[in-house]
Amino acid sequence: MSMIVNRRDVDFMFYEALDLDKLLASERYADHDRESLDAMLSLCQSIAEEEFLPSAAKLDANEPQFIDGAVKTIPELKQGINAYRDAGLCTSGYDADIGGMQLPWMVDQALNGMFVCANNPIHTYLFLTQGVANMLNVCGSDELKAKYLNKLVEGEWFGTMCLSEPQAGSSLADIRSKAEPLADGSYKISGTKMWISGGEQDLSDNIIHMVLAKVPNGPDGVKGISLFLVPKRRLNGDGTLGESNNIALVGLNHKMGNRGTTNTLLNFGENGDCIGFLVGQENDGLANMFHMMNEARISVGMAAVMTGLGGYLYSLDYARNRPQGRHLADKNPQLPQVMISEHADIKRMLMTQKAFIEGAQMLMYYSAQIIDQQKISGDRDEIARMQLLLELLTPICKSWPSEYCLEANKLAIQVLGGYGYTREYPVERLYRDNRLNHIHEGTWGIQGLDILGRKVHMHNGAAVAILREDIQRTLDSAAHHNTLGEYSTALSRALGIMEQTIATVAQCDDKALALANATLFLDAAGHIVIAWMWLKQAVAAANGLQNGVAADVAFYQGKLAATAFFFRYELPKATTNLALVAALDSTCYDLTAEQFLGV
Amino acid sequence: MSMIVNRRDVDFMFYEALDLDKLLASERYADHDRESLDAMLSLCQSIAEEEFLPSAAKLDANEPQFIDGAVKTIPELKQGINAYRDAGLCTSGYDADIGGMQLPWMVDQALNGMFVCANNPIHTYLFLTQGVANMLNVCGSDELKAKYLNKLVEGEWFGTMCLSEPQAGSSLADIRSKAEPLADGSYKISGTKMWISGGEQDLSDNIIHMVLAKVPNGPDGVKGISLFLVPKRRLNGDGTLGESNNIALVGLNHKMGNRGTTNTLLNFGENGDCIGFLVGQENDGLANMFHMMNEARISVGMAAVMTGLGGYLYSLDYARNRPQGRHLADKNPQLPQVMISEHADIKRMLMTQKAFIEGAQMLMYYSAQIIDQQKISGDRDEIARMQLLLELLTPICKSWPSEYCLEANKLAIQVLGGYGYTREYPVERLYRDNRLNHIHEGTWGIQGLDILGRKVHMHNGAAVAILREDIQRTLDSAAHHNTLGEYSTALSRALGIMEQTIATVAQCDDKALALANATLFLDAAGHIVIAWMWLKQAVAAANGLQNGVAADVAFYQGKLAATAFFFRYELPKATTNLALVAALDSTCYDLTAEQFLGV
Fold this sequence. Notes:
2 copies of one chain form a homodimer. Chain A is globular and about 80 Å long. The model of chain A has no long low-confidence stretch (mean pLDDT 96). By secondary structure, the first copy, chain A, is α+β, with helices and mostly antiparallel strands. Chain A contains 19 helices and 12 strands. The longest helix of chain A is centred in the middle third of the chain and has 37 residues. At the A-B interface, helix 9, helix 10, helix 11, helix 12 and helix 13 of A face helix 9, helix 10, helix 11, helix 12 and helix 13 of B.
């Protein structure tokens, strides 16, 4: 079995539980059909298995080194990137007009997901570059695009996002990096940027940084932030690489996981002029940066899912092949040992992983599909409606997998026991890698404030109303299967409690108190949305059992079992959390810093 | 503030919430009083802070190496051990008759807990040695004790436990190591042992292995296991060190955390005779090994607590000193940033850590106190009663902190954000270290089977009845404080549901089905016991607010807030889990290995 993908499951989600067929019937995606996409998935699977997966442990054990102001990486890292680039995959995420494959984004997520599962630290360089290219394509001037875009699209140069500074992590209002206008329209950039993934490396000839900085005399706070394209090396008039742009690598951060991706502290313009180019308008920087935030946050969620999947597949394979102990009903030591997948608690740990990972994976594809559907819709109201739903789902896409697919990684270790705790097996590495996802691209707490403080209130709660409508459609289709009635009732009830909770919290005048348990609300909303995703899968599985092929019976039964598991073991937790949110419980909020220890 | 202990809290638990005073009034502990113990705690705190804590990161980054068949460790490891030994601390865990300090074990747990928090990988060598010495003292012959015991007690030689083998981890029935009787009464040992912590090192002149092996023609399974003392180097007639005993180090396991403790694969007698000495009687090996299991499992729980505490203290200190962002009520960027301990979600994450860690720490001291009380009681019935309660609590002591104090470590990382994810800060190391505790000394699943399959049924449920009686005593004392009524009601109700659940499950004829959700039962029982521990602390805090000094008001308020948090945010989860157990839910149990993926 593959350690990076269950192709049957991808097919199930795409063509049985979701509507990829409809997307492929549109003019926008006319160049693709199921057959060509299958071939593409197979190609990516083999490159990921052959060029990414084998070096994952070595890259983790031999992280990039900071030597004489530069970065040194192991050759396998570049080899993986070359294999990806040589297959033309750098262009998978773009439209045809800028040289891309114009794939449905949900398919692009699946293609790239295999590389993420195999070796996310390599993939991160590629992922960041895609974000920069998309941002430049949407917000940049024709001149900037002419100079930089194609090199990024082709993967010849890589890109980074430079937001945080040592004194300003989540609080971008407090960044101090400066951009002083020069006579030729460019800017002189100065300042220190922190946590910059891929900020320095020995993999591409140039690095294109997207940098948030403040121009003189702008407004305070986030309203005075502008976005600049700042290349590591300047370009000559003919577009060839010129002199250094004076971006100094101060140091590398040494992370618990994701070690193959450099994480840098950069000084801009410390020892000479560092030139940047405005992207969009002055003081519009944050809006421009956030233009890509929905996609970025879904991709972070997808990384959490795929990192969880790696642990699930490995631990499942291990459990099905590791003899240990006997059935409780007959422990006669003269009997041979059974495979540990026969033990109830091992099944529980495997099922928990399955329910978390496949539930979240479905949400990632579903959300990506919304973006694809927006692009083929000509109806502005429909596009706006989809946008509202997407905005509501985004903090869930970012946070829920970061929490629960990490939990899955923890269980994968437990399935392997002592072996799982050693670096000789991959599951501990995946656990370490996944711990990152709750932190970058907006922390867990930030996502909580986003959903309860902003998203549920957009347009007088329109997003939640749309969620209710779309869930109702799933409930309607579930009504054709008697066996799913238990779940429909539970989902509808939980959603009702969530709606009431939002209404209750909205009446609280103390905004800070209203949001004190926002993270719990986010967690509960995530559970409700994932339950919905499982009900969608259950409907498709029930249909499959009625109409599908006999060889798929176990697959469909597994989907129905996972649905049962999620609704019985997990969904009840949402109600408990929502009760605390609705009660405006202030147990934590009221605490003073002294009360923790008494001093 | 200290990064390894909150001394005020230790005092609170010992003298306000528990009964150390009563222990100290007994003849057995007459050599100690509060003053002497305070001095001892202070001494240990400074040695741990000065000789253990500073090398923790370096030891993690420079784990022991396997060079030419031997182990090489960094000098700081031996330096820490020497400081501990030179202070006479190796003898802290033993009675006076074998040269020990004869401390109450709850105090010994607190003393050693500071070393665990500071640098558990160093302490593990010492901890294992104590287990071996105690086992030898209880089960060994006078001759063996005369030769080996004092060297172990003094910490001159170290000890190990050799249970697992490559084909037999949790399933000890399947061990294959052999012990053939020799004419002189000793045995020839052969076989391979795995996961042996401290199995080889360059720290002590000799290593005393306690090895499970099978004598010829014994019964099958666990009934045919015997226990042997097997030294790394044999002793000459005069007790001096003699020749090698042919125990080969095959390799070291490379762990995710706890890296400073060697974890070894050992071959006994591969290249020459390996001589072992029977401890206790033939075929009594498992019983002898388990003689110390309650203490060992409580110590594992204590390690989980202290590893969690390290993260909590560090993240609390960080949060109180790290400015970032502003209050939600006024986000004016011209205002200075506030400390992140002011943010509601940071408070939630700190409070969750506090509630988990201090709740579990209280349980560890409480359980240790039971062992101490057994030793000063002359009443056999009372001792038997305490033993039953201890047996019931032991799987909770082992597992609950392994789960929830790891969760606390996860939150400590989150409080630090990106910094927390780097090896420049200790919180990620503590998270990695703590992941071990769910695995060794009986996995999570094993503990679940132990409590629901065995412990709750002992003597017709006597242990649970004793738990009910002792909880009732706490409810009675809580009745003096009106503010605690909410908690008493909730605890009594949850305990009742647990009792009903046990009764329901007991009626199930399918034993395997009855135990299918044993891990969930363990989790729920843990939540109920920890809620009890918090109610005990709440009573003491409420008393303290009435009678204590003004300087302690914030401390007591923090205890009451943590009680509120645990009862409101956590205890409800127990009911959800118990409902699944009582329903004999078979969602996971029914799964076949094929249904996970469909193949």
